[in-house]
UniProtKB/TrEMBL annotation:
The lineage of its organism: Bacteria, Bacillati, Actinomycetota, Actinomycetes, Streptosporangiales. It comes from Nonomuraea harbinensis. It is a multi-pass membrane protein. Its main location: membrane. This is ABC transporter permease. InterPro entries: MetI-like, UgpAE/MalFG_permease.
Length: 328
C-alpha cells in the first residue's frame, strides 16, 4: 500500500486547499486585441457613429481658434492674424451679452425646474394604471407632441396666443381685453416653458418606464407585507429603484443647461420680446450669421461651451459624492 493511500481523503483536501489558498483559479486576462478578434462584428457597428462624431463634432472644434484670431470672409479659415483675448474682452464688456446671458440662465433654469421632474411624475402615474389598453392610449397621446416639427409647434403656439386666437376668445367671454401675448416680454418665458412641457414631458417618460420594469416585484411584496401603502411603496421602492436613471438624466440635462432651445426661441421671439427672450444661441446667430462677426460669435460660443463643461463636471462630482451614482 502506498503512502498516498494511507492518508484519509478528508485530510488530503485541506492540504490542497491550503496549498492554493482556497481561491478559485484566476480567469485568463482578456486583452483588447483578443476582444477585437472575438467580437469584431459588433465593433464594426460602431464605425459609422464614431465617424459621424469625428467628422461633425470633433473636427469642427478646430474652428474655435478663430475666437483668438481675426477672421475675414474670403480669407483663411483659421483667421488672418492673432488677436488674443480681444473678442473675449469685447463680449465681457458688452451689456447686451449679459442681458442674453441672464435670459439664458432664467429660461434654462425654468425649463430644468418644470420639464425635468414632470416625466418622472407622469411615468409613476402611468405605472399605476392597471388597464393595459388605457395605459397604451395615454402613452401614445403623450408621445405625439414629440414627433411634431418645431416649426409646427411654434405655429400652434402662435395661433393659440394670437389676438383672435382661442385663448383671447376665452378672455373675451369672461369680459377681459385681448392680450398680444407674443408681443409682451413678460409673457414669453411662460409661453416657452409651457410649450416645452407639452412637447417633451410625454417622450421623457420612456426611459423611466423602462427603468421601472427592472424593479423586482418581490420588493413591492415585502413592502406590502410590512404594511406600506401605494405612496410608501413609491417612496421607498419605486423611486430608489429608478434613482440611477434620474441622476444620469439630471447630469445630462445640467450639461445642456445653457443650450436653451434655439429653434423654438428663434421662431417665437421678436424685437419686442428681446429683453426676456433673447438667449445666447439666438444672439450668436445674429452676431455670426446676420452681422458676419464670426470671431466674436466664436468667442461667445467657446465661453458657453466652457460653462457647460463646468456644469456637467460639477454635477457629476456632486452626484457621485452624495448618491453614489455618476456618469464617470
Amino acid at each position: 500500500m502506498s503512502a498516498t493511500d494511507t492518508v484519509p481523503p478528508d485530510t488530503r483536501e485541506p492540504r490542497r486547499a491550503r496549498r492554493d489558498g482556497g481561491k478559485p483559479p484566476a480567469a485568463p486576462r482578456t486583452t483588447w486585441r483578443r476582444a477585437l478578434r472575438r467580437d469584431w462584428q459588433l465593433y464594426t457597428l460602431a464605425l459609422l457613429p464614431l465617424a459621424f462624431f469625428l467628422i461633425f463634432r470633433y473636427v469642427p472644434m478646430i474652428g474655435n481658434v478663430i475666437a483668438f484670431r481675426k477672421f475675414e470672409p474670403g480669407g483663411s479659415i483659421f483667421g488672418e492674424e492673432w488677436v488674443g483675448l480681444r473678442y473675449v474682452r469685447m463680449f465681457l464688456d458688452d451689456p447686451t451679452f449679459w442681458t442674453v446671458f441672464t435670459n439664458t440662465l432664467v429660461l434654462g433654469g425654468l425649463t430644468l425646474l418644470f420639464c425635468f421632474p414632470l416625466p418622472i411624475v407622469l411615468a409613476l402615474l402611468l405605472n399605476e394604471i392597471r388597464t393595459r389598453k388605457l395605459k397604451r392610449f395615454l402613452q401614445s397621446v403623450s408621445y405625439l407632441p414629440h414627433f411634431l416639427s418645431i416649426v409646427i409647434v411654434a405655429g400652434i403656439v402662435m395661433q393659440m396666443t394670437a389676438v383672435d386666437g382661442p385663448i383671447n376668445q376665452l378672455l373675451k367671454v369672461v369680459g377681459e381685453e385681448p392680450v398680444p401675448f407674443l408681443q409682451k416680454p413678460e409673457w414669453f418665458r411662460t409661453i416657452y416653458v409651457t410649450s416645452e412641457m407639452w412637447q417633451t414631458v410625454g417622450w421623457g417618460t420612456i426611459l423611466y418606464l423602462a427603468a421601472l420594469t427592472t424593479i423586482d416585484d418581490q420588493l413591492y411584496e415585502a413592502a406590502r407585507i410590512d404594511g406600506a401603502g401605494r405612496w410608501r411603496q413609491i417612496w421607498h421602492v419605486t423611486l430608489p429603484g429608478i434613482r440611477p436613471t434620474i441622476v444620469t438624466l439630471m447630469i445630462l440635462n445640467i450639461g445642456t443647461f445653457m443650450a436653451v432651445g434655439f429653434e423654438k426661441v428663434l421662431l417665437l421671439y421678436n424685437p419686442l420680446t428681446y429683453p426676456t427672450a433673447d438667449v445666447i444661441t439666438t444672439y450668436l446667430y445674429r452676431m455670426g450669421v446676420e452681422s458676419s462677426s464670426l470671431s466674436y460669435a466664436a468667442a461667445i460660443g467657446l465661453f458657453e461651451a466652457l460653462i457647460g463643461i463646468v456644469l456637467i463636471t460639477s454635477a457629476n462630482v456632486i452626484s457621485r459624492r452624495t448618491v453614489g451614482t455618476s456618469l464617470w
